[in-house]
Amino acid sequence: MSRSFDLLLVGVMLLNFLVLGTSRIRVCIQAAALQGVLLGLLPLLVHRSFDWRTGLVAAGTLAVKGLVIPSLLLKAMRDVQIRREVEPHLGFVASLFLGGIGTGLALLFAGGLPLAPEHDGSLVVPASLATLLAGFLVLTTRRKAITQVVGYLLLENGVFVFGLLLLEAMPFLVEVGVLLDLFVAVFIMGIVLDHIRAEFSSLDTERLAELKE
Amino acid sequence: MPALVLVALPFAAAVVAALLRSDRARAALLPATATLHLALTAVALLHRVELKPGVWLQLDALGAVVLGVLSGLFFLAALYAPGYLALRSDRPNRVFCVGLLGFLGGATLLVLAQHLGLMWVALEATTLSTGPLIYFNKNPRSIEATWKYLMIGSVGVALALLGSLFVGYAAYLGGHDVSLVFRSLLDEAPRLSRPWLRAGFVFLLVGYGTKIGVAPLHSWKPDAYGEAPGLVGMLLAGGMTSAAFLALMRVYRIVAAAGEGAFARELLLALGVLSLATAAVFMVRQRDLKRLLAYSSVEHMGLLLIGVGIGGAGVFGALFHLVNNAFTKGVLFLALGNIHRAYGGKTLDEVTGALRRLPLSAGLFLAGFFAVTGSPPFGPFMSELTILTAAFSAGRLLLAAAILALLAAVFLGMGGTVLAALQGEPPPEPVREAFRDTPSRTIPIVLALGVVLLLGLTIPAPLRSLLTTAATDLGGKGLP
Predict the structure, then answer these.
(1) What is the least distance, in Å, from the CA of B378 to any CA of chain A?
(2) Under a CB-based contact definition with an 8 Å cutoff, are residues B121 and A180 in contact?
(3) Is A101 on the interface with B (CB under 8 A)?
């Protein structure tokens, strides 16, 4: 694992904080898109030599995570005319704070797990877990359906980062898993978002609160 | 080869359903496909062969149990479906039929998959194909349920992927040829990296546990089961949960083979008891009958985890309970579906005196209630007894006492709501045009109840030997 690889991972982790700390949904989506682009570059740095399969994973990730899904979300955002996440269940400062704690815990937890010699000292495991936690935080504390989808994207990105460790050893699992999961899930969520909008003429999941005990 | 056909059949039928133009033809395709699937399943169960190393689609004993349940349950649902869809002929059923068949295909693939990654892909497929089924009623409540189902389900599936990757890394660190085929993972189990395996199991437990719907990961369940049509509820509560349980058991087997069985069993027990307690609390004064059944599902999934957590004959009890629970849920959800149609509602505000308004369906629902709460002479009584006996003979008296107390609480809580709905005078004016019990809407329920009753009286010898083999594979043992 090279130095530039770890630098990209630091970038991925910083973008988590951008998503956690902003109320502007456009910024959220753009940060997730940029994270997608960074993730697309990562597989190219794992391999010493370039081969077409890695190229495919990189290109696919870049296209889906960096371009397709963000533009779908931006379009949904324009259609319903919402710009800001208002009154999330957890404030932005508190979110940042928890995100920081999560990153610290991820570093601690990763320190307790053994790594193969060729992965030693890399930031993959903490970056993966920190992104996963940030995504989970966004998913559970935001009210707007679009922001929740961004949270899900981050969560998926965390899984993808860990997959990089196994890209050479078991390419099938990583490629199929990450890309299929992401694309299909967001595709379906896009349809559901559409129906929510038609039904409630807003994308606020607070309105989805009829089913309770 | 038969394995491949079993998986391909439902997917091919789903494509045909998507292309067909007539709603009635599509509805008729369901029982046709289900019958063929059941016949193929019977052939596969009767001619089970030794597992071959390296083959990704094969039927082992555990798979055989769940495949039989899945195919049988889908057959009953498909018998019921044309009559139900004819009632709802005001809405197109293309997406619904494609979703049902896609679910059958995905779940069959899950059961047959002998590869950690493939199994995960199959679970993802079943999750996505069941989303539109919950949305069938296309009202604000059902979209809320669908959104929660997809959101929570997708997070669960994503965590399961991470868990699978962790197990993969455990194998990678263990050296040797890295393969995620279960047979080779089992053979190499002692060499897998323990910390990664433990972390992987925790993530997989959370991920697959979300799909199984055990507390505290069950929050989607009352909404999804509450808003979905009865026959979808039946397939989710009997089919999807059983398939996800199988997925968890496949991972558990590897963890146990690696020598971390005790760690895993403690976690299973904790989630199991918590599920039982959660169900008992939320069933009290529950006015919505479908949500009541959802909590019953949480309870019974908890019992499955407890059975495996106890070990020994408890594993046999858990697998036997899986079969009983699936068919009992078939009785309950279909009978409640009829009641729902007759009253135009599913809460105690609308439903009273169902035994008078709809004697057959309500009578079957009552029988289902006694079965699901573990009353003799039905199957769940026998399997719950097996699990309890195993707890006593393992010396876990406190656990056994807790289970008994919680089961009693569930019986009382559930009974209060069920009896209030069935007894008394029906409201004077039928809300819709008179809905009566017809053979097409009741025969599937009678068949399901017949299975539950038969299993309570005797376990057929082939099933007994199958359950014993599957239990032994999971480190347990058969009935003494």
Answers:
(1) 31
(2) yes
(3) no
